[in-house]
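pls ignore typos typing on phone
FE2/S2 (inorganic) cluster + seq
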Amino acid sequence: MNSDEATTPADAVMCHCSGTKRGNIQSLFEQGLDVDAISRWTGALSGCGGCEWDIAEFLKELAEQQSSTSGLSRAQVDSTK
Ligand code: FES
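k done
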């Protein structure tokens, strides 16, 4: 059994049609791009579509991490009042 988070490196290719790597997708997501913009920017999802589920799941994970992180920092700010 593998955990994707722990075992998948940033240079793993997520979209083989465009050669888009996991790290590229993460960095574009962190710049605020949504899945459509990431697709236009990288060419991911514009070929066979076989990466669609993986990329959607990855973006969902990133969004969850981001919201839990911002929730945490908000709580930290609140506790300093
Ligand atoms: S693997 Fe991404 S479009 Fe084909």
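The chain is about 60% helix and 5% strand. The chain has one domain: 3-79. more later
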